[in-house]
Each structure stands twice: as structure tokens, then as C-alpha cells.
Amino acid sequence: MLACVGGLCIGNIGVLAHIGAMIGIGVLHLPIRDFQYFHIDARKREFVAAGMSCGMAVAFGAVIGGTLFGFEVTQPNTYWQFTSMWRTFLTSTLAVVVYSFFVDLWYLG
Questions:
Q1: Which of 5, 25, 47, 70 registers the highest number of CB atoms within 10 A of its CB?
Q2: Cβ–Cβ under 8 Å, residues 13 and 56
Q3: How confident is the model at residue 93 (pLDDT cuts 50, 70, 90)?
């Protein structure tokens, strides 16, 4: 992460995928009462896949590409459903929009 922030030429794709996966699993550990539903292994994996897909979507600026990457990586698992695809797509869309908003603010200021 520090190498990407420092501007080194190592690529940010893998770093953003890992950061997204860590944020996805970190959200589950927030002290929110109703999050006990998501502490099932299948839901945890879905959060990790959605976070990883968000990282890939932000790195490339391609929402569908990030979603399909998450689907491709988690395809051998039985927990991936069609609803997981839509949730991951919406999460990736939100991540790209928020990232674009902050980049625009950075360059305007």
C-alpha cells in the first residue's frame, strides 16, 4: 500500500483488491447489533468477494470487470448465487462512484 501511495511503478491492481477484501471483512466486525446475520461463513465469503471486486473495479474503472473478476475467482465455491452477482455489482458501482467523486475533489482543490 505504501508503495502505491509513494508512486512506485508496481501496479495498484493487486493492492486495491487486497484492500477491498480487508475492508469487506472488516465491516463485519463493526459493533452493530443486526450484523449477527452476516457472521455465517457463506456471507463472510460474499463480503470478501464483494470487497475484492470493488478493489478491482476501482483499479480499472470498470464495474462489470470487477464483478466478473469476483465471480471468476469464487466460481468453484457453492455459495455464489445470482443475488450475489447483483449485490457485488451494486457494491462495485458504489465504490467506483465514490472513488471518482474523491478524485474529482482532489483535483479541484
A1: 70
A2: yes
A3: very high
